[in-house]
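Long-time lurker, first post. I've been practising inverse folding by hand and with some scripts of my own, and I keep getting stuck on stretches where the structure tokens seem ambiguous. Below is the full token string for one chain I'm working on. Before anyone asks, I'm not after the true native sequence, just a reasonable design that respects the backbone. If someone could post their per-position residues I'd love to compare against what I wrote down in my notebook.
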């Protein structure tokens, strides 16, 4: 049974909602005002016989007064409050924060699941559970829902926006959403429920998580030090995914507010400036109980709803576990059109096909795909570590009809190779080098952290990130030869293909664990978390130059990340390179058992022979350097001349400027000795790779062409 609110604060709020004073209540009860004041201040409580009189005065039942788990229905009813137009005539034609993201359920999944991870209650050690429910309403179910959200009160505002739809983007989206609902007789809801999360705690207006989500923009108040979000923009994806700009919220709090924890309900509507019945409105609106403390009791605040209300609003939660339910009204997935066109060929991709951005089966598929791709690591446990996240997706129609059964996202199905790699790290079964299928190789890769302070030079310390590499063994592991990078909350931040791989490399997958993901005992793990979090843009899909990185560290701080990438790619290439074979390896017994007539050996030339550059792959790296992989053909001979690779800038006339090497590394059939290639006796081919030193480039790399030469001796 729910724990009710203390009687005094509860009674004080009911009087405000009913518009009554303490003196008026005392008069109705035929008691002194001092007695009512004593109840409110907590100095005493009314006798059981008086409780019935209080219920009658407040227009409610005796059970509500005794339990105090909800507000009475006395006073002003739940309604919509629309922010008035600005006195200076300013107009906002939409929420700019929503334009940071596309109307894409995959982007929505990434941002909302990240937020749930950030708000996970860590004290019990359990994962946060997130469920996505797609729900299509038609017929009487649609009519009942529209009645619950007071659609008739909203319709004049939507009509005003539709009249202006041709002049601005948000209006066109809203107009299309309203027309779809009426023309096709359906409305798609998308609900995101999380459990074992903190919930929207705090006051309606003061600093806190509730106000940060419901009242404010560009404010991020995350619980964990390894939180993914930092810009306060992720919540905008909720409204961006709604063609009607409408989101309803029901939160169960981990910390009581007003003595309550369950069914804290509010709605927020995002529309552009509009004029209704000659009165201008600024944009947003809120669905809630009028606040008696506001001027004219107009401003709507959250209210403690009863079970029947949340059920009619399609906001019912399973049990009393803390967390929040967000209901996106009029969900659509515009980005699915691009994905569909990419899968179609010929006439099917042409204009005129049935393009439905509200197809709940397609949306279900795309949600599962995105969650498995971005959160596989958070859903993986092993070696005594529990997963941080459990997530599922389902699709319904009209409450009871199951369109797609609930699908629990399984990381071993969505990302089998990477999941195997992470489990091997947790269980301590990694190896130093890959020699058999299914093994997981590990390397420690340094991230040299700069000193903070806006332009301060120097190094704070070196954080050892963990690199894991294993074979790619499934069609799910696509594309191959990628490294997924992540930090403490274990959401994939960066996906990058490793360049300049040796020829014939078997397909593989890699994982880079940085910050607290590398282990809380890793040196400078917390500092690495802070540094890498600052290096992420609002989309949290890469590490690189950002304004925060520049202001808190220095304009060149991003080069530390570039260097980390170089170290990671180099380590991967070393781990996946084919091991050198010794003479006679693998077939000695077979050769002894067989007699094969062979041709006479060709006469080997006497004297030194000069290797020849035969193949070259080159690209410009992230820091502007040339990165090359070269193949060398070695003639037969009893003496092979050592060669020095020389990188030059191609020019139209005059001598070609020489570039310095930042890296030179032998791959196969040779050894690198202080910049000199020395070739294995009897070999016919060799491979090496290298990267130029950007500081030796006379001009920007993109404006040049590279020439690679092999010169005898030291390359002078």
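-- Answer (accepted) --
I ran through it position by position. Result:
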């Amino acid at each position: 049974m729910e724990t009710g609110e203390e009687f005094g604060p509860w009674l004080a709020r009911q009087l405000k909602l009913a518009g009554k004073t303490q003196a008026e209540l005392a008069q109705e009860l035929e008691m002194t005002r001092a007695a009512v004041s004593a109840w409110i201040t907590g100095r005493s409580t009314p006798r059981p016989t008086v409780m019935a009189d209080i219920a009658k005065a407040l227009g409610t039942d005796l059970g509500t007064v005794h339990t105090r788990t909800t507000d009475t229905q006395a006073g002003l009813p739940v309604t919509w409050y629309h922010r008035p137009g600005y006195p200076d005539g300013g107009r906002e034609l939409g929420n700019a924060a929503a334009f940071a993201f596309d109307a894409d359920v995959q982007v929505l999944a990434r941002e909302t699941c990240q937020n749930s991870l950030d708000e996970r209650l860590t004290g019990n050690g359990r994962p946060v559970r997130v469920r996505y429910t797609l729900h299509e309403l038609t017929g009487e179910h649609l009519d009942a829902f529209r009645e619950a959200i007071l659609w008739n009160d909203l319709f004049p505002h939507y009509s005003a926006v539709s009249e202006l739809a041709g002049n601005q983007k948000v209006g066109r989206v809203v107009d299309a959403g309203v027309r779809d609902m009426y023309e096709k007789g359906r409305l798609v809801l998308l609900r995101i429920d999380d459990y074992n999360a903190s919930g929207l705690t705090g006051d309606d207006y003061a600093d806190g998580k509730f106000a940060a989500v419901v009242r404010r923009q560009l404010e991020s108040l995350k619980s964990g030090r390894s939180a993914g979000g930092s810009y306060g923009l992720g919540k905008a994806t909720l409204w961006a995914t709604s063609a009607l700009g409408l989101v309803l919220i029901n939160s169960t709090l981990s910390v009581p507010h007003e003595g309550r924890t369950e069914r804290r309900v509010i709605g927020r509507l995002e529309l552009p400036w509009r004029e209704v019945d000659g009165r201008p409105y600024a944009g947003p609106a809120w669905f809630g109980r009028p606040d008696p403390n506001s001027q004219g009791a107009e401003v709507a605040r959250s209210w403690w709803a009863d079970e029947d209300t949340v059920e009619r609003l399609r906001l019912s939660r399973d049990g009393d576990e803390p967390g929040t339910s967000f209901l996106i009204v009029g969900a659509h997935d515009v980005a699915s059109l691009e994905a569909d066109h990419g899968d179609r060929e010929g006439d099917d991709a042409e204009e005129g096909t049935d393009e439905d951005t509200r197809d709940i089966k397609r949306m279900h598929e795309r949600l599962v795909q995105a969650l498995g791709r971005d959160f596989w690591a958070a859903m993986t446990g092993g070696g005594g570590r529990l997963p941080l996240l459990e997530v599922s997706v389902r699709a319904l129609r009209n409450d009871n009809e199951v369109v797609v059964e609930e699908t629990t996202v399984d990381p071993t199905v969505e990302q089998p190779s990477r999941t195997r790699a992470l489990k091997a790290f947790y269980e301590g079964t990694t190896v130093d080098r890959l020699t058999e299928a299914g093994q997981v190789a590990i390397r420690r890769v340094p991230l040299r952290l700069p000193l903070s302070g806006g332009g301060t030079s120097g190094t704070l310390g070196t954080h050892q990130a963990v690199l894991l590499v294993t074979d790619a063994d499934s069609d799910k592991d696509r594309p191959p030869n990628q490294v997924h990078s992540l930090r403490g909350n274990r959401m994939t931040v960066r996906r990058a293909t490793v360049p300049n791989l040796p020829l014939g490399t078997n397909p593989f997958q890699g994982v880079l664990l940085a910050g607290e993901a590398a282990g809380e005992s890793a040196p400078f793990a917390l500092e690495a978390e802070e540094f890498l979090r600052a290096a992420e843009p609002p989309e949290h899909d890469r590490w690189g130059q950002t304004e925060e990185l520049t202001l808190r560290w220095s304009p060149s701080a991003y080069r530390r990340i570039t260097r980390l990438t170089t170290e990671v790619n180099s380590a991967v290439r070393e781990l996946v390179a084919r091991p050198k074979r010794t003479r006679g390896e693998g077939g000695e017994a077979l050769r002894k058992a067989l007699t094969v007539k062979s041709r006479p050996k060709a006469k080997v030339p006497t004297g030194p022979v000069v290797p020849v550059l035969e193949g070259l792959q080159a690209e410009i790296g992230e820091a502007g350097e040339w990165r090359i992989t070269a193949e060398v053909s070695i003639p037969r001979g009893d003496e092979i001349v050592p060669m020095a690779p020389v990188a030059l800038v191609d020019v139209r006339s005059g001598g070609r400027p020489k570039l310095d090497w930042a890296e030179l590394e032998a791959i196969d059939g040779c050894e690198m000795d202080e910049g000199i290639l020395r070739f294995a006796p009897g070999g016919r081919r060799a491979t090496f790779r290298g990267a130029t030193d950007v500081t030796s480039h006379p001009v920007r790399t993109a404006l040049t062409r590279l020439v690679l030469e092999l010169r005898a001796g030291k390359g002078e």
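A couple of notes from the structure itself: Confidence is low (pLDDT under 50) at residues 226-232, 341-353, 580-598. The CA atoms of residues 485 and 512 lie 5 Å apart. Happy to go over any region you disagree with.
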